[in-house]
Structure formats: C-alpha cells, structure tokens
Specification:
By secondary structure, the chain is of the alpha+beta class. The protein has two domains: 3-167, Ribosomal Protein S5, domain 2 (2-Layer Sandwich); 171-307, GHMP kinase, C-terminal domain (Alpha-Beta Plaits). Helix content is 38%, strand content 23%. The structure holds ligand 2P0. Ligand 2P0 binds next to α2 and α5.
C-alpha cells in the first residue's frame, strides 16, 4: 500500500487573489504575490486503500465535515484521473494554526494534500506541476508550494502556477482581533463579487497593474514600495468586496483600528504597512529589525505574533508496498 506525508505552510498575499476567470480550472482573474510563512503548518498523509469504497478525511484527529470531505474527494478524483488510478484514499491532516486566526487556510491544506497525493498516486511532478495541481484544490494553495515570496501567474491551465521571486527582507506581525468564523467563505464571496460588483472589472485590471509594480519593487529589494503597494491593494480588495450585493464586510472596527495604528507608526518614522485577507484580522508588514517594536505597539489591539518567510511544501515521508 502506498502512502505519503507532506507538510505545507499558509501564505499571506501582498497582491491579493480575488476572483476567478474559470471556476472549474481555478484560474484567477489576475496574478498575485505572497509570502509563505514559517508558522502554522498543515501536515497531511494520503494512504491508498484498495479495500475502501470511498475516500475518507480526518482533520486534527476527527472525521471532517461532509462538505470538507467532499472537497478533498473531488480533488483526489482529479489526481486519480491524471494517475490512471481508481483506488480510494484515507487522508488525515493536522493543522497547527490557532482556531479563528484566519490562518487555518485552504492554502496550506491543499498544498500539503497535493504534494502527498502526487507522491502516493505516483505522479512525478516538479514544483510548477505541484503548484498547478494544488491550484485545482484552492487557488491560494498554488503559492504555498513555493518557499518565501511567490508570484502566481494568472496564465492558462498550463501556465497558471506560482514560482519564487526575490524581494526585500521582511517580517509580518499578525494581529488577531477576532476569532469567530467568517460569515461568507472566500469562494462564495469571490463569486458574489464577480457577479454583482460594478467595480469587479476595474479591480482585476488594477490587481494586474499592482502585480507588475510589486514584481518590480520586489526585484529592486525596495521595502517601502512593496509595503505601499500591498496596503493599497488590500484596501482595494476590501472595497470591491464591500461593493458586492448583498455587501460583504470582512474588516470590522477593530481591524480598521490596526490600519489606523500602522499609519500612526509611519508618521512616527516606524515603517509598517497593513494588509488583511477575507476576514477581520490584520497583518502588519515590517522590516525584520522593526518587528518587535511594531508587535509591542500593536499588542493592545489584539493577539500579536511575528512570522517570517517559510519553506515550500515538501514530502516528509513515503511508504511503498
Ligand atoms: C489571497 N484570499 O490572495 C486572497 C486574499 C483571501 C483574501 O486567496 O476558491 O481560499 O479555494 O480558490 O484560495 C482565499 O481564496 O479560494 C484567498 P479558492 P482561496 O490570499
């Protein structure tokens, strides 16, 4: 019986992915760029089980919810189609992200699952191939295949994968202001935004131009430009999300207070920029030497944690018959 275990980490985007050009292939409306973190890994084992009639999925020691199990099963169907296999699998996953911090992400989950499943089903894939495969599970997972800074090209099915890009040294200060479940999933909110926001087209055009500017800023090692573009891009994403009908507001007053404090820090000469994903929590982007000072200043607004660049997805172990 073939089995493989892989580990992957979540990522935080500096240019956000919001909206799909193709739902089936998970092709994004625009490219994006992120930092894979050195914290909160997901470790996933895929064990082929010829005796099993269907796939099973256990998360942190308990059977996962039916919708999650079905999503894992659909991903494995795609792997089996490519591998020419009809064998079911037992999947078990351990996620080390604190509940509700917004980091128990599908990015780390599907990057680990893609890496483990490719090995267990005998699909020999390089990093670009694994990134394309992970993308089919969850778009942002394409980026968690890659260590550190990753640029995910919008591309087509063949060319839409993430690859590493050099950039300035940075740390992120995660400020968790609210641990409750988000009201609307990213997938559903993206769909609603694309279908109902009058600004969606402008968002996609602006995201591509932010990505070009961000790529140049990364290559130049220009922390200030990276931070400015990231903050502006994050606020534009939240603006387009809020413009959906019915509206979706992920940022709350407590998160906005973190944006305010980050701006106040800049006025004082401590350079930090803010970003936020599809949830209430905010992340400050800082130079490594400033991380502890910024974390101390933001600690009054939520639970803070400093994180840095982390490894790409990798196999931890493999077993063959
Ligand atoms: C990002 N997010 O770039 C953006 C910013 C959330 C806000 O990628 O439908 O879970 O599985 O492809 O990858 C969240 O989207 O969506 C996301 P699917 P995914 O990080």
């Amino acid at each position: 019986m073939s089995a493989a275990t892989a580990r992957a980490h979540p990522n935080i985007a500096l240019v956000k992915y919001w909206g799909k050009r193709d739902e089936e292939l998970v092709l994004p409306a625009a490219g994006s760029l992120s930092l894979t973190l050195d914290a909160f890994p997901t470790t996933t084992t895929v064990r082929l089980d010829p005796a099993a009639r269907e796939d099973s999925f256990e998360l942190n020691g308990d059977p996962a919810a039916p919708a999650q199990t079905a999503r894992v099963g659909r991903f494995l169907d795609h792997v089996r189609l490519r591998a020419g296999s009809a064998v079911s699998a037992r999947v078990s996953s351990v996620n080390e992200a604190p509940t509700g911090a917004g980091l128990a992400s599908s990015a780390a989950g599907f990057a680990a699952l893609a890496t483990a499943a490719a090995s267990a089903y005998g699909l020999p894939l390089d990093s670009a191939g694994l990134s394309r495969l992970a993308r089919r599970g969850s778009g942002s997972a394409a980026r968690s295949i890659v260590p550190g800074l990753a640029v995910w090209h919008a591309g087509d099915d063949e060319t839409s994968f993430a690859e590493p890009i050099a950039g300035p040294a940075m740390r992120m200060v995660i400020v968790t202001v609210d641990r409750s479940q988000k009201p609307v999933s990213s997938r559903e909110a993206m769909r609603r935004t694309a279908l109902t926001s009058p600004f969606h087209g402008a968002w996609a055009v602006s995201a591509e131009s932010s990505l070009r500017a961000m790529t140049a800023a990364c290559r130049a090692g220009d922390f200030t430009r990276v931070g400015r573009i990231a903050e502006s891009n994050a606020l534009r994403m939240h603006a387009v999300i809020q413009s959906a009908d019915p509206p979706i507001r992920y940022l709350t007053a407590r998160g906005t207070a973190v944006f305010d404090e980050v701006e106040a820090l800049r006025r004082e000469g401590l350079e930090a920029y803010a970003t936020a994903d599809a949830g209430p929590n905010v992340v400050a982007i800082v130079r490594p030497d400033d991380a502890d000072d910024v974390a101390a200043r933001l600690a009054g607004l939520g639970a803070v944690q400093v994180v840095g660049p982390g490894p790409g997805a990798r196999l931890v172990s493999q077993e063959e018959d």
